[in-house]
Amino acid sequence: MKQFDKTLYQPCRLATISHLVRCGGEERLMSIGAAIGVRAPLLSTHARLLADAGYIEIRKSFVERRARTVLVLTPRGRQAFADHKAALSAMLVTGDTAAKPQRAIAGRAHADRP
Asked: What pLDDT is recorded for position 109?
């Protein structure tokens, strides 16, 4: 089973990547924020983390003297999203989680106590 992506595990980052996938891979920061219900300063922080992971590119420009920030999904980001989604789907469909074996071991250890 594929593992959860620790970068995408955070809800704001997952929503950002998910929105980029749905809208074709490129969108203005302000539009993404409005769509997922997150304000620009918080979204900018999470966008920087996604960019550091190589999942998006941040493109800044000026249009009519106004700053415009566009987030662009990279192939690596698209693959990471697909893998994360597959891991979630597998867990939901099969009930297969990494925590199950740990609980079983902990249960046995508890049962073995005198």
From this structure: 44
Q: Where would I find the H helices in the chain?
A: 11-22, 29-36, 40-52, 75-94, 99-111
* Rounded Cα distance, 51 and 70, in Å: 12
Domain parsing of the chain, residue ranges: 11-111
> What H or E segment, with its residue span, contains residue 63?
strand 56-63
Distance CA 53, CA 83 (A): 15
Q: Does domain 11-111 have CATH number 1.20.120.1630?
A: no
Q: Which of 5-14, 51-60, 88-97 has the highest mean pLDDT?
A: 51-60
Instruction: Specify the pLDDT at position 113.
Output: 41
